[in-house]
Design brief:
By secondary structure, the chain is an alpha+beta fold. It has 6 helices and 11 strands.
Length: about 230
């Protein structure tokens, strides 16, 4: 099922003000585990031609991203995800994998799959065999999330977006990161068929504009520049 995803690059002042508004009317995500939110760390993959990166840079209408995601630096829950985007609609295929499976994929090896196009492992395996899919960059940030039942609305505030090219160290706690200097804060608004008008009014700042913000692209550019230096 597709969901709408709108992104807004924000200043710290805008993000703080909007978060205060959301706290007054919405419930925090029950999966957060604490009042300060949680840390997300993702290992993004791309093929030999960097097709995912190039499609994002070119604004290709339908494009996909491949990633492995963990939370709060813990390997207790490891998510394998393929996220497809068309315009501002997203479709995410996700499943939990084991640490051994994660390590296989990081080496460029295939893992067991269901042979279904709905299984992200199937899509990963296909891309590994035919396109040379491999790890490219680690993306990390802190997230605070709020939810609203009608419309299945989820509003997230992401801060301190940072990147590391040490892809072999994914899952470890001693990774050094390069922080994005200018685009390290982003607001994401996701919903199914509609979003209530009162939420749209609360999200209005008068100056914030929707953006084609891509953490993957920005973090690839950050680590690629560091490699060139």
């Amino acid at each position: 099922m597709y969901r709408v995803e709108d992104k807004y690059n924000c200043t710290d002042m805008q993000l703080t003000a909007l978060q205060s508004r959301m706290e007054a009317v919405l419930m925090p995500d029950v999966n957060e585990g604490g009042p300060k939110g949680y840390r997300i760390t993702s290992l993004y993959f791309d093929d030999l031609k960097d097709s995912c990166l190039q499609d994002t840079m070119d604004g290709v209408n339908r494009r996909s991203k491949y990633r492995i995601r963990i939370y709060n630096d813990s390997l207790d829950v490891i998510k394998l995800e393929v996220k497809t985007k068309q315009d501002n609609r997203i479709w995410k295929r996700s499943k939990t994998i084991t640490r051994a499976q994660m390590e296989c994929l990081m080496r460029g090896d295939c893992i067991e799959d269901s042979a279904s196009s709905e299984d992200p492992a199937t899509l990963f395996n296909l891309a590994i065999r035919t396109q040379g899919l491999k790890p490219k960059v680690i993306v990390a940030y802190e997230r605070k999330a709020y939810v609203y039942g009608p419309g299945n609305v989820r509003i997230t505030f992401d801060r301190n977006v940072r990147a590391s090219g040490r892809v072999e160290a994914f899952g470890q706690k001693n990774i050094s990161y390069d922080f994005l200097r200018e685009y390290d804060k982003v607001l994401e608004v996701k919903y199914d068929e509609f979003i209530p008008n009162f939420l749209l009014q609360l999200l209005e700042t008068g100056s914030m504009r929707q953006s084609a913000y891509s953490k993957y692209q920005l973090c690839r550019e950050c680590t690629d520049l560091r490699t060139e230096d």
